[in-house]
Structure formats: C-alpha cells, structure tokens
Hints:
The protein is α+β, with helices and mostly antiparallel strands. The chain folds into five domains: about 5-145, Immunoglobulin-like (Sandwich); about 150-235, Immunoglobulins (Immunoglobulin-like, Sandwich); about 240-315, Orthogonal Bundle (Death Domain, Fas), CATH 1.10.533; about 315-410, Orthogonal Bundle (Death Domain, Fas); about 415-474, no CATH class. Helix content is about 40%, strand content about 25%. It is built from 16 helices and 20 strands. It has a six-stranded mixed β-sheet, with no helix packed on it. A four-stranded mixed β-sheet has the order 1-5-11-10, with no helix packed on it. Strand 17 and strand 18 (about 205-210) form a beta hairpin. The two termini are about 40 Å apart.
Amino acid sequence: MKTSWCLGCCFGIQYILLATGSSQIQVLGPADPVIALEGDDIILLCYLKPNVSAKDMIVEWTRTDLKTPQNTKRVHLYRDGRYANDDQLPAYMGRTSLFPEELKNGNVSLKLSTVKLTDAGSYGCLIPLLSSQVKGVTIHLTVGAVSQPMISIEGTKNNGVVLKCDSGSWYPEPEMTWLDSDGAILSDGPTEIETETDSEGRYTVRAHVTVQKTDSNRFTCRVLQHQSKHMKETKIHVPGIVACVDRIKAGLIQSVTKAIEISDVLLQKDLIKKEIHSSVSAAGNSQDQMKLLFQALDSGGSEIKSAFYSILLEHEPDLLRDLDVQFMDNHRTDLIQMVTKVKPIVDGLLQKDLIPPGVHSEVNDAGTRHEKMSLLCQALDSRGPNVKSAFYRILMELEPDLVYFLNMLAVIEPDERMNHLFKQLVFSDTLPGCTMDITPGLWVMRQQVITTRPTDLSELAHSFWQSAPVLINC
Length: 474
C-alpha cells in the first residue's frame, strides 16, 4: 500500500501568524489540494515554524466541510500526551494517527490510512490553546479511484474489427481514448463512448471503436483522469485472436456443430462469397462443412478469423470454453513461470465478479509474480471452467505474444528438456541451469520469434533443438 507525503505539494504555503508572548508561530500546510488514490495511506502535512515542540499542546484535526446532526467534525484529537478520540467521527475510527516522535519537532501531520472516496474534503489542523484568534490551517484532500481497462473483440463492421474497452470504478470521471501503435489517437472511428455511475458515484466508461488492418495491428485503450493525472492503459494485438483460431483449428473441425449458421452470419457480413456459403451448406456433415469454411478463413486473413471467433463466442460458447480450459490445464506450469501481468489479470477477474475480493488481495499481496500466479491458479481450479475461460481470454488480451507462443508450440512434441529451453529462450534473458547467458546464435533465434511472429514455429524450433547442445554451454 502506498503512502503519500504532501511535502511536494507545498509550492504555495498558506500560513497563519500566531502570537505566543514575544514570538510568532507559523502553522504551515499545503495550499494546493492533496491528491490520493482510494486505498492509499496518505499524510496531511501540518507543522509549526519555528520548530517548537507540540508534545504538550492540544492538536485537533477536523472535517471543516461536514454538516453532521450533532455538528461532530472531529477526525483526530491529541491531548495530555495521548490520543483522545472518544467523539471521533465513526468513519475515521482506527484509521488516523499522528507521529509521536515528530511532535517534539513541531510536526503535527495526520496519517490517514486506507483512504476512501468519502474522505475527500477540507481538513482543519488546529492548535486551539494558542493565543491567536486564528488557530489553524485548512488542507484540501481530493480522492480518486482507478482500474485497469479491459479490451475485448466484439466482431466486425464495415470490413473492420470492432474492439470494446471497459473500465470501471473510476473517480472523478475519466476520459477514454483509443490509440494506434504509434500513440496517435485513432481518427478512423467511429468511436462510441458510454459513461455510467454506480451507487457510490464511481464511474464506468466504455468505448467501442472499429479498426482497420494496420502494419502492426496493435491498439491501445487509455483511460485518463485529468484532475489527478492518473492514467491506465491496456494494449491488444488483434492477430492474437488469429493465433487462437489457428491453434484450435483441428478441434473446431471435429467439434463445431453449427457451421451452416456461422457461414450464414459471415455471408451477411460480406466476409465470405456466396459460392463458399453454398459449398458449406451442401457438404454432407459438420466436419466437411468446417473444412470448407476453414479454407475461406485461411485465405481471408485476420479480419475474417477475428469475426469467426466472435461468432463462435455467440453460437458455441461452451465449446470455446472447453478449449480455453484445456489450454489452461495443459500450460499451467508455463503460465505460472511466464505470465507477467498478474495484477491487471486479477483486477479484470474482480471487475467481472469472477473472484472474491479476498482472493484478489491474497494474490496481489504475494511476493514474486510466480507466487502470485501459483495462488491464482489454485483459485481458478476451485471456481470452475467459466472462470478459467475468462482468465484465458483476459490473458489473450493482455499478453497476446505469450498466448501465441504457447498456442503454436502446442502442436510440436519435442524433447521435454529442449522444449523447456526453447520457452526460456523466448521469455527469459538467461537459461536456468546453464553456466552461460544465451549466446549470440540463440539471440538471433529469439529475435526471429519475437519480431517476425512466424505462423509455424516447427522449423525454427527444430533448428533450435539441433543447435542447442552447441549454442548453450550447460
């Protein structure tokens, strides 16, 4: 949990001169609002200058902007050398403290733990027994909330692919934009943006965009809260969906039962020709229908395969779910070792109400990313196939290169040790168990995989297995 000090906020210092005998005491605090995120621990800065001791003073913190029935505004009270919070506002119980060791230096700052959206407002830092008529300073706290945006492929439209981005639990209201691979705002559109709020005032923002094929087919959904400057973004590589379709091609040919219905939709979207549709409809059984349909898919490029995947989600969701679960089970060990974006993934699962807050916290609080993924896999095992399928689809959006690599490697059956080394080649900087780092020859292979994204890893993998004993000093 992050703790935010306000020292950097004091570009404009407001102060009140408080006379005590022959000297003057300044009570200082930040003039600019203090900005925090929901869940942070923050410190509202307040101190005396000169640095006289406040150990024997009364220090009172209040919410000056609140109107309560009993006019109770106390956030924290220090008196007679101890805390005296009997009439503290209930919302602040157990979340406030001063810094006892700093009181002797005139530091009367307040630490507020686990900040809530309702904590936003004006805070008074008061030294009531000083002889001046004005005995304190007011500090303004702004609280925001953010979450990781999630991208999904909705289908096709006007010969393009429709992407949807969702991000909930924002405060104040954010702005969502789509960017291309160069970071430029997408202007090809159209972009449709929806905003809604929940009972606590948090904003959910959603945007659809229709994208056309580009050199990289990489797009970014960015959510920005201008007031606090907080930003979250998620990237998607559309061909990652294509790799998924290629991986499960054999299973789809054997298992899809609604090939004619899928062909109907593709024809309505002008993605296949009438001749192909007629051939599919005339085929004798579902396997032959799917073989003919895949001929059109393989020659039609990423757009038609992305549309085909979206149609499958609608017409045969159970089949895709089972294939998703199969991928998860087959690559459990690989995923624990290789997944890097664990936090956005668990955020996405929580946002979809697929894991409870306790699991979300336990995973995020774990030490290494491998430990996080191990805990998450245990949680997925106990929550059924729908949650595993949701994990796979989030992973496909957030780490398409990893999904692509494991999908393509799944069709090859190499020596187990060489297979492990090949995975390490692509997703690690060194090879565990080897006495030397990856050699230049292996780096060339690594770059081939990462930069060219070949549709078939067989030739490259076999080349690796043949040369690995020479190229690696193990």
